[in-house]
Amino acid sequence: MRFGFILIILLRLFTFKTCNACPPIQPPPYGSLVRVCGTQIDDNCFIDCEPGYDIIGSCYRVCLKDNTWSGIDTQCINPSVSCEPLTPPENGEFVFGCQHFAGVVCESRCKMGYTLTGKSKTLCLKNGTWSEKLPTCLSSTSNACPPVTAPTHGGITKATCGNSIGTVCEFYCNPGFQLNGQTSIKCLASNTWSSSVPTCVKSDTKTPVCPQITAPENGGFKGQCQTPATIGQTCTIECNAGYLLTGSPTIVCRKDAKWSDSPICVLKATCSVLNPPINGLITGQCSPGIVGRSCIFTCKKGFEMLGVSKLVCENSFKWSSPVPKCVVGCPSLLANVPANGNFKGHCGPGIIGEQCTVVCDDGYSNLGSSSIRCNENKQWDGPVPQCQRNACVTLIAPRGGLFINQCVGCPKSCVGTAGQTCTLICSQGYTMQGTPSTVCQSSTRHWKPIPATCRANASLMKSLSSSSTCKPGSNKGCETKFRDASGSKLKDLQSRSKKKKAK
Questions:
Q1: Does position 14 have pLDDT exceeding 50, yes or no?
Q2: At the topology level of CATH, where does 280-327 sit?
Q3: Are 453 and 403 in contact (CB under 8 A)?
Q4: d(CA 351, CA 374)
Q5: Spatial separation of the C-alpha atoms in residues 62 and 45, rounded to whole Å
Q6: Rounded mean pLDDT, 476-485
Q7: What is the Cα–Cα distance from 487 to 197, expressed in whole angstroms?
Q8: Which residue, 419, 404, 405, 417, is CA-closest to 360?
Q9: SS3 helix, strand, coil % of the chain, rounded to 5?
Q10: Nearest to residue 304, comparing CAs of 334, 333, 337, 332?
């Protein structure tokens, strides 16, 4: 008797454990469990891949209260090793595509009316061969379920309800009645319906109920889901192979007679798993990415983001932008783009030791320096450069002439910023017409006096063409060739200009 009592206690303990546990997780091919994984509620499991293999799916999974593991199945893949490309079996298809590199598992299934013969899954091995031959899809001897009829006091959503394999029939009840059983049933490959036809029972109209719901496309209900549902009733939803549930798997009929959520099943095709950058964090749908969902990046205190903070998983299963970086630098200037100009260089954020340059639009020029540098103290060495409108038209050096001294555009042109002095010299063979120097007047936006020009002297043209030693873009070597209106050499003109500035 005592032994029997102890045995009963052990059996109860064993039953309790197994009824509140997730199925054991098996490591993927070319992967392993970082440590022994428990199977009880809230137990977690870490999965890693062999060197050279990339992890696709969830590397960290938790045993949930509904006895399922969080996340999606993990694969370890090596794109550098390829197997021979496969084509789906005749009258069949791949559940979710079929890549052909090491670690990828391809799963086949047959179309309605056909039965799969062979193993449904095959693995691309590290030696470049497939572990199994593709299965075949043979025509079923019978491809129909028994015909169904509408329940009393109710009907079938569609006017007719077929009974071939894969057909789904949905039911409803007349006002004053509620459905007792599944709202929809499916004809399985075994030529049987997934559940019996529901019945319509009289309902208490005073009791609030949640409206009838149907299983999401590419999914179904797990267990019973009686609708219309009474307050507190729950329904659990699961997706077909190759699809991923977005939203809560379990929905509840709330006190306001509305369902707590509307989960859907989306293609399991995903964007690659994103990891947080060094000194950064990620939130959102990142591991893996789901089409249409976003992954948000933020940097830790003291670091600036280099790149886009919000990445979207696009229909091409690629992220919308490269993963940003978190760098030590100066604050981003991108929110302070100067009027009539644009940034060039490392401006958002600044990188220590690098410059941010402001390039002004046509007709505008920098007011002061055009660049600022990010210092080691993570501060810019000056304010953001600004662009000012040119007060006067830009002067272009006439034929046989050059502008000297320090001016924007010299020697071939002279930009007309307010207060700018432009000094012209003419080469041998040309005579200056007018005053060599002119100043841009900010009040009138005109040059005063009228800018001079260089007039060619026909008798000296031949000498000019044979003896000129001036180099394009430089005044070097031109001291003996260029003269002002009085005939003085350039060196004398430059000397007088320097003395005038000194005074």
A1: no
A2: Complement Module; domain 1 (2.10.70)
A3: no
A4: 6
A5: 6
A6: 42
A7: 113
A8: 417
A9: 10, 40, 50
A10: 332
Two domains, one topology: 83-139 and 280-327: yes
502: left (phi over 0), alpha (psi -120 to 50) or beta: alpha
Lookup: tokens for 492: 């004398």
Burial 463-477 (b: 16+ CB within 10 A, else e): ebeeebebeeeebee
> pLDDT for 373-432, tens place per residue?
988 788 889 889 888 777 788 899 999 999 987 788 888 999 888 888 999 999 988 999
Three-state secondary structure call for residue 336: helix
Q: Which pTM was predicted?
A: 0.29
Beta-strand relationship, 294-299 and 270-271? unpaired
Give SS3 for 493. helix
Residue type, 195: S
The fold for domain 395-454 equals Complement Module; domain 1 (2.10.70)
Domain 31-79, CATH class in plain words:
mainly beta
What distance in Å separates the CA atoms of residue 161 and residue 172, rounded to the nearest whole number? 13
pLDDT, one tens digit per residue, over 182-193 is 888 888 877 788
Residue 501 token pair:
């500035």
Q: Quick one: what percent of the chain has pLDDT higher than 90?
A: 16
Contact 236, 187 (CB under 8 A): no
Give the contacts of 399 (CB within 8 A, at least 6 positions apart). 430, 454, 456
State mean pLDDT over 302-315: 85
Indicate if the pLDDT at residue 222 is higher than 50: yes
| Residue whose token pair is 């499916």 | 186
DSSP state of 255: T
Burial of 202 (0-12, 13-18, 19+ CB in 10 A): exposed
Q: Do 163 and 156 form a contact (C-beta atoms < 8 A)?
A: no
Tokens matching residue 487 = 């005939």
